[in-house]
Amino acid sequence: MVVGIRGVDNSSSGGQPSGHTLDHDALLEKFRSGNVRVGIIGLGYVGLPLARAFCEQGLSVLGFDVDPAKVDRLGRGESYIKHIPSETIQAIRDDGRFEATDDFRRLDEPDAILICVPTPLTHARDPDLTYVENSARSIAARLRPGQLVVLESTTYPGTTRDIVLPILAEGGLRPGADFFLAFSPEREDPGNPQFSAPTIPKVVGGLDPPSLALASALYGRAVVRVVEVSSPEVAEASKILENTYRAVNIALVNELKVIYSRMGVDVWEVIEAASTKPFGFQAFYPGPGLGGHCIPIDPFYLTWVARKHGLSTRFIELAGEVNTSMPGYVVDRVADALNDRCRSVKGSKITLLGMAYKKDVDDPRESPGFELMERLLRKGAQVEYNDPHIPELPAMRHYPDLRMSSRDLTSDYLASRDCVVIVTDHSAYDWHWIARHTPLIVDTRNATRSVVDPIAVIVRA
Predict the structure, then answer these.
(1) What is the dihedral sign for C-alpha 208, 209, 210, 216?
(2) Fewest Cβ atoms nearer than 10 Å: which of 257, 352, 428, 433?
(3) What is the pLDDT of residue 396?
(4) Is residue 62 situated within a structural domain?
(5) Which of the residues are catalytic?
(6) Is there a single domain that holds both residue 52 and residue 167?
(7) How far apart are CA 375 and CA 194, in angstroms?
(8) Per residue in 337-347, pLDDT tens?
(9) Do 49 and 197 fall within a single domain?
(10) Quick check: is 421 in a domain?
């Protein structure tokens, strides 16, 4: 069936319909064949793996980023993300499949544009859609008939229709007729060797049937399975559900950790025992707080939109309270451990092991390590860190002043510290060696569970 759609003049731009009929079947076949160029806005932990996935399936990708340093590195064939080797970037660059640019005037070149930009929270924990809105405005300025736009950034249900759509339509092009719009949530899990962009099913919700068909055809070229849903709102809500589910369950085990610790019960052993049940239980593990680009943020997008509808989200808000309280709990445990050794936090030399938000990645976004560091510094401690994956602390949105370099771990250095706090349990750490040379360890990850050194002083937190 041919759907009559105005305007597919690829030479036009700036939001003006070309005035003739677009053969939707022909456009759909073009997407199915892979004879399209994909534009990706945001070349970070979501956008760059997605670019690789398309390029490895033979599609051409034009990547956009506002950071010229990233663009320059990619142009030299260098990767700045640990789990994407520079050799991969060099390969897709050298054969002409991949190009990076900071020139957003080129947004009329791709046939499909995927928005993969951050969606942080404001200080008041309200959604900050600045990056999404700026991306949509950049696209609108160059939008031409026949282009598909897909929002991948995690957000609340209604963002694609209520925020992105009006911006794109400002130039006069009609959605579903002149351009196409969909939402497909990113599902990246950095550092997970079992799953990457091509092997994770992709949920897709189109604004209309033609948009859904085009988006499904596009992703079908690069991922193992496309899961079509009835609307962008369903796709948006599915991602919020995934991460709210995790946030609530992590909050549960964090709360149980505090309770069981007071009772003298090892929460890690409890979880291990419960995990032997072959049905009805999924293990979640406590820690020093939530980190990453999803779990600490996404549930509050749902909380915010629920308030707009006059509803409260008590589970989510309680989970948020528990999870955000964990850095304070860890600092209290550090203070107690030092006090037992006749020392105060003030003046103590404390080293944090691991500043990445999760094991074996180089991603510090929303890492609880920053909150721990700031709290300990406020109490007068002399705080340093080591992370084999993060040699320099970047300027963080909420912690712009916490800039320092990773310290080398030597036996003399460890012996000179009053306390070492395990924040991230990287595989590169030799826990037996660390325990042998450190006067006091506060372990928030159960990393030292196999250490039986009788001299080691280890406090579980």
Answers:
(1) positive
(2) 428
(3) 83
(4) yes
(5) 294
(6) yes
(7) 36
(8) 999 999 999 99
(9) yes
(10) yes
Identity of the residue numbered 140: A
Q: How far apart are CA 89 and CA 94, in angstroms?
A: 8
Shared domain check, 122 and 37: yes
Question: CATH code at 143?
Answer: 3.40.50.720
Contacts of 7 (CB under 8 A, 6+ apart): 17, 18, 19, 20, 22, 144, 145, 146, 173, 178
3-state secondary structure of 40: strand
- Write the CA distances from 200 to 197, 212, 404, 440, integer angstroms: 6, 19, 36, 42
The residue segments making up the domain with residue 155 are 4-230
Q: Residue 403, Cβ neighbours under 10 Å: how many?
A: 11
More confident: 401 or 405 = 405
CA 288 from centroid of its chain's CA atoms: 18
Query: Is there a domain that residue 249 lies in?
Result: no
What mean pLDDT comes out for the span 164-185? 96
Does residue 126 sit within a domain?
A: yes
* More confidently predicted of 261 and 125: 261
Model pLDDT for residues 82-129, shown as the tens digit of each residue: 889 999 999 999 999 999 999 999 999 999 999 999 999 888 889 999
